[in-house]
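Reviewers asked in the last cycle whether our approach scales beyond single polypeptides. To address this, we selected a multi-component target totalling 633 residues and predicted its structure end to end. The input consisted of the following lines:
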Amino acid sequence: MGKIDKKREPDKKETLISLRDVCKNYQIGREVIHALDEATLDVKEGEFVSIIGPSGSGKSTLMNIIGCLDIADSGEYILDGIPIEDYTEGELAKIRNQKIGFVFQSFNLISKLTAEENVELPLIYQKVKRAERTRRVEEALKRVKLEKRASHYPTELSGGQQQRVAIARAIATNPSLILADEPTGNLDSVTSKEIMDIFHELHRTGHTIVLITHDNDVAQQAERSIHILDGKITEVRR
Amino acid sequence: MQTLKMALKSIGSNKLRAFLTMLGIIIGVMALVILVSLVNGATGSVTDTISSLGSNMLTVNVSDNKGAPVHLDDLRTWMEEDAIGNAAAYTKESFTGKSGGNSDSVDVYGVTAYYDTIQDLSMMLGRFIKSTDIENHTYVCVINETLATELIGYTDCVGKEITINGVKFTVVGVLEDNDTSLTSAFSSDSLVAYIPYTTLVRLSETTTLEITSFYVSAAENGTTDQAEERITKILMDRFEDDEDAFSVKSQNVLEDTMSTVTSALTILLGGIAAISLIVGGIGIMNIMLVTVTERTREIGIRKAIGANRRVILQQFLLEAVVLCMMGCAIGIGLSWAILRVIGVVVSSLSITFKMNLNVVLVAVGFCFMIGIVFGLYPANKAAKMKPIDALHYGG
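The resulting structure, written as structure tokens, was:
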């Protein structure tokens, strides 16, 4: 795990995410909706960026594109030096697997698998060897302080604990980017704080975090906030 | 390996549904294995009965003797061969037989000694034609039970005289009408008399000492095949390597017919069972489609964290195949138990119902195929889902 813990020199930051004039349109009936309208955005390695906007503003679309779950209609997206637009589905799956750790609002754990197995899943897809998998799962669960709940099923865990399992799953693969979509949306304020503390901790140890939220308080905790409204991005510097 | 564990886990999470889904396969496999095994068992016992009827016998016909006709002496020489047991010439003619005031058409066989052994005839009274009868051209005959009752009037008639084609013959033996014997199966109603071959030569104008048809049996410790090989070799040497000059046939007509009938039956029953297996397969496909829809979200999550199409396809395909193979295993187990029970119930019939290994292998192969064929569509449907659509499905 040395790679994760490696602190990067602040002045040597490289650009991790680079969006240039990205557009994404949806057609609903006859009406074309510009979910993203020439969005341009840079995130450097080790940054903690929040993206804030009301619902329907295009932030889910932005997150899908950043997370390689969807592909932009036009524009350029470079993730960790890799131009994304001309990849096949299979290659995108691999990029998601290796470069991105997802944390969702609704946790999205697989209910039939234990906490441990959920964390292990992306490592299985990465074809990591068993011994190495066990070690990494243990370490990831330790970082979210859930090592004692390893063999519990998601239904046996509280919302906050489930979200911590999801974070463990996201960091187990040692990704370049942690992409969190309203990670505190389903949680009460106390648990939200716990989760945010974990994100701060991850940020301190060098992870790049992009956090999407509609909650101003949460957004304020990031180094940088980006507003999105009607598909247009505006940077908020503090 | 990991995928197999996942598949088992997901099947285990809904045991009742999994069982009901497998039921189609279980019933199909049971139908296939039990029916085919039953047919095979029954065939086995019938074939055993048939071969006990003396089908270790070869019929030889000579159509072109090439100037080297077969004589009685030749048969005697050939009987010395290791692979050959007995050889007996025969020829059949039809004459009018008379006794007292009765007269009727009689099938007269000119035979040599051992004909009764080869044909497995059993004597009721008296003796069969002997070598001395042949050498001395004696006017003796062995008649069947039907002739005795219909022409003479009673069966205890050893020593009586009957007239065949105007010549008097002394009855030296009466044959039992054996219902299970091969020849009687075709000629039980006809009046039959056996007389020495040499005597028939004198009686008839068409029969000569040049033997055109004779029976050969295998040696006691040899097989029919060996006897067939040997006699064919001898005749080939004799008839200038012309295989059209003679024919050697084993007497398995009934056996052949039986096997034709049973293989047709096996195919028919197997076909019916295969249809029920296919129906079972459709059941599996149906449930797999439901499962895929139910687990859309799970598929979305898996894809988001890096599962590609192949992994998802593998997972669902394996699940279908595992479901099929589990059903197959249960079906085979139950078939085995049922066959054992049937075996005990009908043990008095001397029929053995064994599970046929081939049909088990066919069942396993077929189930595997069904798992693949009917699992492929749902699995492909799962694999093709777009991660965002799947993730936001139902919530």
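The radius of gyration of chain B is 34 Å. We regard this as preliminary and will revisit it once experimental data from Aim 1 are available.
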